[in-house]
Each structure stands twice: as C-alpha cells, then as structure tokens.
Fold:
Amino acid sequence: MTPQDLSHAVSGLRPRLLRFAQLQLREASAAEDAVQEALLAATMHAGQFQGASAAATWMFAILKNKIIDEFRRRSRQPQADVDVEQAQAFEEALEEQFDERGHWVSHPAAWADPQASLEQKRFWEVFEVCISGLPEKPARVFGMRELLGMETEEICKELKLSTSNCWVLLHRARLGLRDCLSRRWFGET
Structure:
C-alpha cells in the first residue's frame, strides 16, 4: 500500500483514533502526540501493510502500541499527587451501594439486550463519558486491561502496583462503570 492509499483509507479515522487515545491517556496533548506518532509510523511503513486486516484495525493496533509506549514512559517519571477529593467521592459512592454486610442495597436490574446496546454508536459515547468520570488510576488500569488487552503482570510492572491492588482497581472501575452505565444508558435510577 502506498502512503497515498493509506492516507485515503484512514482519512476519516483520525477523530476516532484521537478519542480512543484521549480516553486512555486523559491528556489532550499526549493523545494528539500518540495519534501523530501512529500516523507517522503508518505512513513510514505503509508498504508493509498487507491488507490482511482492515486499515482501521491496523491503525488502531499501531496506536495501541504508541499508547503502551506512553504508559511506559510515564511510569519512569514521578507521578503527580492524586486528586484526593475525587478519590474520596468515588469511594463514598461505592460504599453507598452496599449494606453493612457487604450485600447490594438494591439488586441490579437485568439489562434488556446488552448485545444490541453494544452495537449502537451512542453506547460508546456514554461509555466514554462514564470511563472519563472514573478516578484516573482505576480508569487507566481498566483501559490497559480491557481496552488495550495488557496482561495484569505487565500493568502491575508499568504502574508499579501489587497484583492485589491492580485487581482492586479493576473491581472499582467495573463497579463505577456499571453504576454509570446503569444510570446513563440503561435508565435505572
């Protein structure tokens, strides 16, 4: 594939790449840099694209690697202070969902048709809002694990977490996403 063919194939893809990068990196400038690096890498290696997958799939794979590189770069730098207020509010919201014995205060309602919901573009917009509303660390761990497909061991190494802390962060992220999606997408109160 020539760089011109590639440019044509991914011309409308840039906004989706940028949204995905912003969701993971949570910084507009870092997301823009990752997308630019991915596009540059794709242009430089356009001749290696065999067409075995869609150009979009190939571009997202390149972007995924650029995002992982950025996580690695960040893990080598000292981390800024955590937003304590946001973390406390998140903890309180989680605690309100359970009684003193650790059982659900109100059992979650069954979701009507999750498969059909996943196929709707609007769902992903709501999902993006929900994951953006999570505290940074649980959102990052969830994104690395579920969206980027990284193994727990690799996430722990990159973020300097214990395995148990990683699983706690994943659990909290899933609960937060479940709560947000229940309210914003599935219409539960």
